[in-house]
Design goal:
- About 10% of the residues lie in helices and about 55% in strands.
- It has a 45-stranded mixed β-sheet that branches.
- It is flat and about 115 Å long.
- It starts with a helix and ends in a 42-residue tail after the last strand.
Length: about 950
């Protein structure tokens, strides 16, 4: 019996050994027997099913790369994206391997790919503002081609990613996601129309940014997810999803549906009864650094929901809700014996349709104490422009103890802070409503020192009081008594009182020095360009209505102000206006300027004069600031005043507009200007002297004289903007004896209106008036131009002028080629895109040509000529010239069709520019019938 058992055991081991040997043999031999066939089928499949550019270094077929799967590995793999991102990487990897279903090699018509392995890779997903993604590289099968002869098919059951860097940049939703060291394993029947995808993922560094705000930075994420995917309806259902962001456990459930024009979202993220310490680990890095030195205790509940449809073209956006509760909180920094105790918070906010005007903020309660000190508040806030407020805040804090308890990074605080504020009601400025308010704020013996600057701000004392008992703006009063501090042994004090905000009664006294650059360094990091210095001794007392109605004797405004390196930003200008230095003195409603120097970009200004209505302008929105100045400048760059910035995106560059120069409507200034050089695009103006008036949003140049292309020019002009991309101008110019060659080369408008002067040489004079509109690039809108004037020719050689040279060729009259012309007045008018030329005549070598007709700004011509023959020109030959300035068509006769006029229509300047119409035919051959000679 024992012998039979031994024989059976031996046979079993023998069979097992043979089986293992055969399996190992097959594992080695299959990749050798079928390498080219399998590789070719997979390559054919990739070429047929991928419309992105694909490249790799070499291939390898093996069972042992991802044992026990048979895998085809592509080394140095690179796949580029779909349109419009054909040149950008979609996926790159050190290697990507496709798992091959072994059964399909022997018994299937197609090689089946059921696994994908990707290691040391980069996945770069992009979506542009139009919602076009770069991942549409897979060519799906239509019902008509479902039975095609593809050599391979994808029927995935496993996706395995190791050490992958993920970048997701969606410009349509302003979402940016970055993940480094992503390890991902997904399992499921991905070939089914409805399946469960089981996922396990770890991320070493996860960043999430929405609308340029960083919400998560370098967080570790661990996730176990079960997602039901419906490929028929393009729907994702997140069922069982347990996440950890650093140490914070998060439950995530929801639904994501793809619509034809957007998304349908229903997400709920919550963390219940979690440790307060774990919540801080999920915050940005600066909090994590602080947390490593801090003892944090307590419990917290978090809830975030995002529900609704996001359809950009319909301006539909989802609703957001966030709720946070903190109970029994405790914070002690760096083993401090003093702690913030009994931290309690019930915070709730809603943002329907992501619309800030519908914002609802409710802090049902916020409380903490530091020893016997405390902070307690309740706040309800609804809306933004006209908020409905219900707030109560009470506090008494020793800032030194608070700083010791919670550890404010890089800052030392001292002082006694107290607050008692009650405010309830609506703020509606148009209806003069203000919440009923009683508020007191006080800081005694304050002290601030940071690690960014060696010296502290000391002796900070501020006592502020706001009272409104009726809910009307006229009954609001605000008092600062005082606001004072000392910085680098230089004290500053401000005492102010404001009453009756319908007709503001002000009493302001300010004395001291402010080194703004150094004060800013106390609060900010080094390297930021914030400058400025102010020294003042001011006393401003008065009533707004006295300034408005000219009762200046009732005003008691006096004092002096010195400014240096003050940077001013304005909604009207794209660059900051920098006051390099300036002395100002106040008297009644006037502010006098002395030794005022300023820069704007590359432009510089020196100014002396005064401004009126200064206090009234500062206290009201609709008041006009008046002024009279003498302005000098060495250089003014007009391009820097354009309101809109250019776009460097190649996709959008063709439609980008820089914007017109916007003239503020609240200014009424008279400037007597003297500028050495002014540059605008290709136009260089020198030695400008004249009067500039700015009033009601219009800029007028009066009796202005300057030098242009070496010629003295007299000019009057009016300019005003209608919108940021459309403006009006009315321009009158008189220039005597200028070089026509330089005018063509250096003046763009002259080049557009007198394109025939390209090869001309000589001296001419111009007396012209033109009005019209400018587009967003400050370029004339030609159909809008209206005007006329005279071009006086003194001595000009029309070298290379195609019109006369073609006439010369066809008439075999050499005298008309490159003629010398003198003492001619050419009068023209401009309207509806047409330049009409009044009849004029001249003498050339005994011939007496006469010309009249019209040309258009898109290059078409319609001219009538008569060539008077020697000796007296009594006998003449009629000639008609049509076609374009580049390709004129010459013929006999007088009858021609008028050029089609183009009337200006509002919005025309925003239409795409169309190229000039150039006939494709050559100049016609002159037949005997059409012969001009004899």
């Amino acid at each position: 019996m024992k012998k039979q058992n031994k024989i059976g055991l031996f046979k079993g081991l023998k069979i097992t050994g043979i089986t293992i040997t055969v399996i190992l043999f097959l594992l080695f031999i299959l990749p050798i027997l079928f390498p080219q066939a399998i590789t070719n089928k997979v390559k054919a499949f990739a070429n047929e099913k991928l419309n992105g550019e694909l490249s790799f270094k070499e291939t390898n077929l093996s069972f042992f790369t991802h044992f026990p799967s048979l895998t085809l590995t592509l080394d140095e793999f690179l796949l580029k994206g779909s349109a419009p991102f054909e040149k950008d990487t979609l996926i790159s990897a050190k290697e990507i391997a496709f798992g091959i279903n072994v059964k399909s090699i022997f018994f299937g018509d197609k090689i089946k790919i059921d696994k994908i392995y990707l290691s040391d890779g980069f996945i770069n997903v992009k979506v542009n503002k139009k919602g076009q993604p770069n991942y549409n590289v897979y060519v799906s099968e239509s019902s008509e081609t479902a039975s095609d002869s593809s050599s391979a098919s994808i029927q995935l059951e496993r996706i395995d990613l190791k050490k992958v860097k993920l970048f997701y940049d969606d410009k349509s939703t302003n979402i940016l996601i970055k993940a480094k060291e992503l390890n991902y394993l997904g399992k499921g029947d991905l070939n089914a129309s409805i399946f469960d995808l089981k996922t396990n993922a770890q991320i070493q560094g996860f960043d999430f940014t929405f609308d340029n705000e960083e919400y998560l930075k370098n967080k570790t994420v661990n996730a176990e997810l079960v997602t039901k995917i419906n490929t028929n309806s393009l729907s994702l259902l997140f069922q069982e999803n347990n996440l950890k962001i650093n140490k914070l456990p998060v439950d995530f459930k929801g639904k994501f549906d793809f619509l034809k024009n957007g998304y349908d979202l229903d997400f709920t993220v919550k963390s219940e009864n979690s440790k307060l310490n774990d919540f801080f680990t999920a915050l940005p890095p600066q909090f994590v650094t602080w947390l490593s030195k801090t003892s944090v205790k307590g419990k917290t509940d978090l809830l975030f929901t995002l529900k609704g449809k996001y359809i950009a073209e319909e301006n539909r956006k989802p609703n957001v809700h966030f709720n946070m509760k903190i109970r029994e909180g405790y914070i002690a920094y760096n083993k401090s014996p003093i702690a913030a105790n009994n931290v309690f918070l019930n915070f709730d906010t809603k943002l329907p349709s992501l619309d800030t005007e519908q914002l609802e903020l409710k802090i049902d309660s916020i409380y903490f104490d530091v020893g016997k000190d405390f902070f307690n508040g309740n706040i309800k806030w609804k809306g933004m422009t006209n908020p409905d407020i219900d707030a109560r805040i009470r506090s008494k804090l020793d800032l030194a103890k608070l700083d010791q308890a919670i550890g404010i990074e890089n800052m030392i605080l001292k002082g006694i802070f107290s607050a008692d504020i009650v405010s309830k009601g609506k703020y509606i400025k148009d209806k003069n409503q203000f919440p009923v308010t009683k508020g007191d704020l006080e800081l005694k013996n304050g002290f601030i020192q940071s690690s960014y600057y060696p010296n502290p701000i000391t002796n900070i004392n501020c006592k502020a009081k706001a009272v409104n008992q009726t809910g009307k703006l006229k009954d609001l009063s605000i008092q600062l008594s005082p606001a004072s501090f000392s910085f680098e042994k230089k004290p500053f004090a401000l005492v102010a009182s404001f009453k009756d905000f319908d007709d503001i009664n002000y009493d302001i006294k300010a004395n001291g020095e402010l080194d703004i650059e150094r004060i800013y360094k106390v609060f900010s990091q080094k390297g930021l360009n914030v400058t400025g210095y102010a020294k003042m001794d001011l006393a401003l007392i008065g009533k707004q209505s006295d300034a408005t109605n000219g009762r200046y004797a009732n005003l008691q405004n006096s004092g002096a102000l010195t400014l240096k390196k003050i940077k001013i930003n304005s909604e009207f200008l794209p660059l900051p206006f920098v006051i390099e230095e300036g002395d100002f003195s106040f008297y009644q409603d006037k502010m006098n300027f002395t030794n005022f120097k300023a820069t704007y970009g590359k432009s510089d200004f020196k100014m002396n004069g005064y401004m009126e209505n200064v206090i009234n302008f500062a206290l009201s929105e609709n008041q006009v600031l008046k002024g009279n100045f003498k302005v000098e400048s060495d250089f003014i760059q007009v391009n820097e005043f354009l309101t809109l910035s250019g776009n460097t995106n190649i996709e959008e560059q063709s439609t980008t507009e820089f914007g017109v120069v916007v003239i503020p409507s609240q200014f009424d200034f008279t400037l007597n200007a003297n500028a050495r050089k002014i540059n605008f695009d290709e136009l260089n103006i020198e030695n400008l002297v004249g009067k500039v008036k700015v009033n009601q949003g219009k800029l007028a140049l009066q009796n202005t004289v300057f030098s242009l292309i070496g010629t003295q020019v007299a000019m009057n002009a009016l300019y005003f903007h209608e919108t940021p991309t459309r403006a009006n101008f009315d321009y009158k110019i008189k220039a005597t004896d200028f070089d026509i060659k330089r005018a063509y080369n250096e003046i763009p408008l002259f080049r557009e209106m007198a394109s025939a002067a390209e090869y001309a040489e000589g001296i001419v004079s111009l007396d012209y008036k033109i009005a019209g509109k400018l587009d967003g690039n400050m370029t004339p809108v030609f159909p809008s131009l209206l005007g006329g004037g005279t071009l006086s020719v003194k001595n000009v050689k029309m070298k290379g002028f195609k019109l006369l040279n073609t006439v010369s060729q066809k008439t075999e009259t050499e005298a008309l080629k490159d003629p010398d012309i003198s003492k001619i007045d050419i009068k023209t008018t401009v309207k509806n895109n047409i330049i009409k030329i009044e009849r004029f005549k001249f003498k050339v070598s005994g011939f007496r040509p006469r010309i009249e007709g019209e040309t258009s700004f898109d290059g078409k011509i319609n001219l009538k000529m008569r060539i008077g023959l020697p000796p007296l020109g009594i006998i003449g030959i009629p000639i008609k010239v049509t076609g374009t300035q580049e390709n004129p068509i010459i013929g006999l006769g007088k009858k021609t069709e008028d050029l089609e006029e183009t009337e200006y229509e509002e919005g025309m300047e925003n239409l795409p520019k169309t190229p000039e119409v150039i006939p494709t035919t050559e100049l016609p051959v002159v037949t005997p019938k059409d012969s001009i000679k004899n």
